[in-house]
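ARCHIVE RECORD
Type: protein–small molecule complex
Small molecule: calcium ion
Source of inputs: curated submission
Record status: active
Notes field left blank by submitter.
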Amino acid sequence: MAMKDLLKAEDIKKALDAFAAAESFDHKKFFEMVGMKAMSAENVKKVFQALDVDASGFIEEEELKFVLKGFSKEGRDLTDGETKAFLKAADKDGDGKIGIDEFEALVHE
Ligand SMILES: [Ca+2]
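STRUCTURE (tokenized, with ligand):
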């Protein structure tokens, strides 16, 4: 399912604008601003699948760096610091990548 069918383009734009500056990314506020916090677990998992570009079942560090492009082609790349902080927040089992249940838990925590 395409991101545009799950989230509103104007919400995505507002959220991307809020974190336009390097090192300003805050995943909690971002998920709230794009409307994911209020979404069902099932729909959050659909967002995950749209972000898992190679359909490996995980969002790896390389995919996470470009995760904002999964929301909009205008999205910036995350810095290495932001990518690592995001991964650390989500990766509860410490395997170095984000699984679908870890992602859902991160959005709803
Ligand atoms: Ca992947």
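CURATOR ANNOTATION: The chain has a mean pLDDT of 97.
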